[in-house]
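Input/output pair, single chain:
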Amino acid sequence: MTVVHDTVNVGTETAAVLKAQTEQMSRIVNELDSIHFSIKKASQLVKEIGRQVATDKCIMALLFLIVIGVIAIIIVKLVNPNNKDIRDIPGLAPPAMSRRLLWNPS
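Output:
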């Protein structure tokens, strides 16, 4: 009878250990799902930030080209102010010769 009693006790203990291990595995699976979701979100954020950086770099490159173009036009106008191929830039053109008409009452 003691053998049966011992076997039942061992079976009960084994069942309790298996239940605890099953619950632990369930918690681990839930944590893994949470980690997977976090990694997926982080990956999406990294992609979005990468797109924004690429857009910012393109905008900066275009602004740089515009600034270089304006500087080049200013230099060309300063070196050769009579060049008619380039329109005068407002504010940079040499002052126009003004004709003053003298009023002569006689």
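Residues 42 and 48 are 10 Å apart (CA to CA). The helical segments are 2-79.
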